[in-house]
Automatic annotation (TrEMBL):
It comes from the Bacteria. This is Ribonuclease J. Coiled coil: none annotated. Its EC number is 3.1.-.-.
Length: 460
């Protein structure tokens, strides 16, 4: 199955009909372009009394099976990574030996990717091409432009994929944040200009399509987090997604305001902050102390930021709850703030973690019960989706990055915003944008690979 010069195709192998392990292919004139290559994690199975999650023997890291494109590796022009979240970048070290193609991405994302590749002894084998926002690159038969948008991680980019017979706008993960605190912002004219040029299809994030209104800005969280931390009497531990550099900046500022010392607990947090420093996204005013020093400070001077907001095993917050963290132990009267919301499927693990903390006498504050904004999603709610469709004016809407409910609501929103046609499908469906729009259902077999005992195994 190879597209000819009259064809413009979209083929998702992962991330459509689900949230996670994004792997997308665009086909035209005998070639394919891959966009994103991410991982997912199995949904929690049985949870033991100590809060440990058992995954029923499944590999702990899973990704889309790339068999379709690895069988056509000679026709793969390149791989673009839109941003550095695990569900978009995490599978590259595992799958690149099967792909053997150049990787195009922005500076911060490239820094994260290099750190991952080094762990697999691939750093000097993978050709990484750094691209600036606004830049255009010819990648095989595709002319691609990187467009600035905002998300919950630095340097996210949407893509305008141009071909001789039509253009596709690929949103990546995004929101419309007028004050993102870190990294580039966005301008409306970037997207209204696309409409003047003509967009055949818009492939767009559906994660929050069921959420009314507009997402909260990162800048709006400072007051709520500060007020909670200021009145806490013991240690304060905030758990959030390690990739949210803006959230770390906010917490560092609050630490200064409240007379606390901030330390990072967890490998991913340390890695992300290191990448931010290396790429100039970490101001010198945001001082951190070694987490090993936190245990020697008076409790009211401690602000720790910990991994584990989703109840994952072996993370810093899990170890604190179990009393097995090497740097200090939580005590009654300390406070843990969840500056994150549950990813669907993780609710049981999070509740087990919260129960463990409360048994220690720890005060637990979640985003749901805080009463003030202490977490901001990185994905567009309904008002943002409608605005983007009005700006870009595609002929076809293709919802992705969501489960069936999210994508169905997304399609209705797009049509309500004036898009003539919406095509909703799932992994393995071939979306034909040119010459005649339509979907061929399940033309490609899809599935998952897992990383287990240092090798890839098929999960299903």
């Amino acid at each position: 199955m190879t597209p000819d010069h009259n064809d413009l195709w979209f083929l998702p192998l992962g991330g459509t009909g689900e949230i996670g392990m994004n792997l997308n292919l665009y086909g035209h004139d005998g070639q394919w372009l891959m966009v994103d290559c991410g991982v997912t994690f199995p949904k929690p199975g049985r949870i033991a009394a100590d809060g440990t999650v058992h995954h029923r023997g499944e590999p702990p890291v899973q990704m889309a099976d790339p068999a379709f494109i690895t069988d056509r590796r000679d026709k793969l022009a390149g791989l673009i990574i839109t941003h550095a979240h695990e569900d978009h970048i995490g599978a590259v070290p595992y799958l690149w030996p099967l792909l053997q193609c150049p990787v195009y991405t922005s500076r911060f994302t490239a820094e994260i990717l290099r750190r991952k590749l080094a762990e697999f002894d691939l750093l000097h084998r993978v050709p990484i091409i750094e691209v600036d926002t606004g830049e255009r690159r010819q990648i095989g038969t595709f002319n691609v432009q990187w467009l600035a948008l905002t998300h919950s991680i630095p340097d996210p980019n949407a893509l305008m994929i141009r071909t001789r017979i039509g253009n596709i706008f690929h949103s990546g993960d995004w929101k419309l944040d007028d004050n993102p605190l870190v990294g580039h912002g966005y301008t409306t004219s970037t997207f209204t200009d696309l409409a003047e040029e003509g967009v055949a299809a818009m492939v767009c994030d559906s994660t929050n399509a069921t959420v009314q209104g507009h997402s909260v800005s990162e800048a709006a969280l400072h007051e709520g987090l500060r007020d909670l931390i200021a009145v806490a009497e013991g240690r304060v531990i905030v758990t959030c997604f390690g990739s949210n550099i803006a959230r770390l900046h906010t917490l560092a500022s609050i630490a200064r305001e409240t007379g606390r010392y901030m330390g990072l607990l967890g490998r991913s947090l340390v890695n992300m902050s290191g990448a931010a420093k290396a790429t100039g996204l970490w101001p010198g005013s945001d001082k951190l102390i070694s987490p090993a020093h936190l245990g020697y400070l008076p409790r009211h001077e401690v602000l720790g930021v910990a991994t584990g907001s989703q109840g994952e095993p072996r993370t810093a917050l899990r170890r604190l709850a179990q009393g097995s963290h090497p740097d200090f132990e939580l005590e009654a009267g300390d406070t843990v703030i969840f500056s994150a919301r549950a990813i669907p499927g993780n609710e049981e693990a999070i509740e087990a973690l919260i129960s463990q903390l409360r048994k220690l006498g720890v005060i637990v504050i979640t985003a749901e019960d805080a009463g003030v904004p202490i977490h901001a999603s990185g994905h567009p709610a309904q008002d943002e989706l409608k605005a983007m469709y009005r700006w870009v004016q595609p002929r076809i809407a293709i919802p992705v990055h969501g489960e069936a409910e999210h994508m169905d609501v997304h399609a209705d929103l797009a049509k309500g915003a004036g898009v003539p046609r919406a095509m909703v499908g799932r992994n393995g469906d071939l979306f034909m944008v040119r010459p005649v729009p339509g979907i061929r259902r399940q033309v490609v077999e899809t599935g998952r690979l897992g990383w287990q005992k240092q090798e890839l195994v098929r999960v299903y």
